[in-house]
Amino acid sequence: MNRTLKIVIYAVLVVATCLFAWKFVHAYRSMKPVQIADEDVPEAVENVTTNAARSTNVAASPPSSTNLTKPALASGTNAAVADTNTPQRGLATAKRLGREGASFVQVIGYGGVMLIVLICLGVMLAHDFSHIVAERFTQFILDDDGEARKDPAYERAEQMWANDEFLDAIQLMRDYLKEHPQKLYVALRIAEIYEKNLNNHLAAALEYEEVLRHRLLPEQWGWTAIHLVNLYFGKLDKPDKAVALLRRIVSEYGETAAAGKARSRLAQMEGEPPEAATEEAAPPEPAPPPPEPAKPASNLPKGFRPRSK
Known about the structure:
Order of helices and strands: HHHHHHHHHHH
Radius of gyration: 48 Å
Mean pLDDT: 73
CATH superfamily of the largest domain: Tetratricopeptide repeat domain
Number of domains: 2
Number of strands: 0
Low-confidence stretches: 36-45, 47-84, 97-102, 144-148, 273-288
Oligomer: single chain
Helix content: over 70%
Strand content: under 5%
């Protein structure tokens, strides 16, 4: 991924995280606790029941008393008012509950979006962090000019190589590699000595195969594999292994420059029209023009020419 694009994605994710976190906190603080009903609704219901019972008692009494009828009518009037107010209170409570339910949905929505953005941000951070750690580790174990080169044990092996004592140098390097298995440049150095100084290409190929079993940077792995392919084709005469390794480079490390070289090599092996056929198909060159006839020599002195007719 492009570095600029990655920075833009990081900025968008951070801004989105802050925005939805603020909205989540704001919605959560503005959300009120849900109330089932008003506090005065039960009292209104009790008043309705009491007044209804009172009016019933009055209706059962004899109509001889005029004074008893008026309170009954008043009680009946109060019951009607209570019955009218009760649905209004219930409607207000339902509206308030509806507003509080929408606020709760907003809190859940903001929280969910914030969680998704945080997961995306965490995945990108984990990927980049692991890539940086792997790159630093690979540079450390493959650095030819690092501090490991100053190790006395390894310097002793290099001194043996400088004195043309190649087998002793390889043995010292193997001992050093056993103590420091992460120093893969030592294995590459052993393969180089086998190939260039001892002309033991089979041993060099085995060393390169061992190096390719470790986790390397894509470009480092690809070019090491290309070098091994050249050994398979040239010195060891193992085309099957070479073709298999070329296809592995293309399939597993297709974005590297070594993969481009592997593709071109495979295309050449699959068969292209040879240059000879191209030359035969070319049109023949035209014959050179005949030479002009020589003019007769003149007997006139130098500086004179014959008169034109």
